[in-house]
């Protein structure tokens, strides 16, 4: 039996969950931003659920889903634009500066 009851310990050489999350966040910082945007939209729409008026519940949920997906897709697009900038434009200016 292990000494630490109920806690999973990764094998040596592997990162813990928090270390892996921080490493992935440094590699692509817009993913947590997109996830946060989805959560903010969902929380706001749940808060506004009482004041939806005569709108059907299904329409309210569809609008919530579309808004949350728009945050996620927007973060993905910003990440793609940043990666293209970093890989092509920034590298081309550094190569031109070295010549």
Secondary structure: number of strands? 0
- Beta content: under 5%
Overall 3D shape: flat
Rg estimate, integer Å: 21 Å
Task: Please tell me about this protein's structure.
There is one protein chain. The protein is mostly helical. The protein has a domain at 59-98. It contains 3 helices and no strands. The protein has helices spanning 17-27, 30-47, 57-98. Helix 2 (30-47) runs antiparallel to helix 3. The chain is flat. The mean pLDDT is 81. The chain crosses the membrane at residues 30-47, 67-85. It is found in: Mitochondrion membrane. This is HIG1 hypoxia inducible domain family member 1B. InterPro entries: Hypoxia_induced_domain, RCF1. It comes from Myotis lucifugus.
Q: Brief overview, please?
A:
This is HIG1 hypoxia inducible domain family member 1B. The chain is an all-alpha fold.
Keywords:
single chain, transmembrane, mainly alpha, 3 helices, 99 residues, flat, membrane
Itemize the secondary structure elements and their pairings.
Layout: H1 17-27, H2 30-47, H3 57-98
């Amino acid at each position: 039996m292990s000494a630490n009851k109920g806690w999973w310990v990764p094998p040596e050489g592997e990162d813990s969950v928090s270390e892996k999350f921080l490493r992935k966040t440094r590699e692509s910082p817009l993913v947590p931003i997109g996830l946060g945007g989805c959560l903010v939209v969902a929380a706001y729409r749940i808060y506004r659920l009482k004041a939806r008026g005569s709108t059907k519940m299904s329409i309210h949920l569809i609008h919530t889903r579309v808004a949350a997906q728009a945050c996620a897709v927007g973060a993905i697009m910003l990440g793609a634009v940043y990666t293209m900038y970093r890989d092509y434009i920034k590298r081309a200016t550094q190569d031109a500066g070295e010549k």
